[in-house]
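FIELD: query
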Amino acid sequence: MLWVKAFHIIFMVTWFSSLLYLPRLFVYHAMATDRISIERFKIMERKLYFGIATPGAVFTIFFGLWLLSYDPHGYMHNVWLHIKLSLVILLIIYQIYLGKLLFAFKANRNKHEHVFYRVLNEIPVLFLIAIVILVVVKPFGIVGH
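FIELD: result
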């Protein structure tokens, strides 16, 4: 179980690092004016999203479900876990939204200024803080007790 937990954490770090970096690339992409930079950002964004963020998400979820499989009944009675899983679902939606933005940049149809992406860049930090606190502190007790 410890190996599964280790890989869950490794891929979670990979996933979060991508979710923190991709909006930062969008900031610079939105500010770019020369063709060479714009094309370079498109390549970097695509590789980050499909080569790192998506596999990171898939393997994080895979190893997380594997961890749950050790004691699904026991784990599912924990309120903190329900909240964590809800946050993971929201994080998946966030990543899908980043993908939508990626495709807008790819088609040269970005509709946002760099400030929008700076704000968007802070969202994963809030998720990271909440998820780590939920997993480490395990607040809120157990359902039904």
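FIELD: remark
Helices lie at 2-31, 35-69, 72-75, 79-106, 114-120, 123-137.
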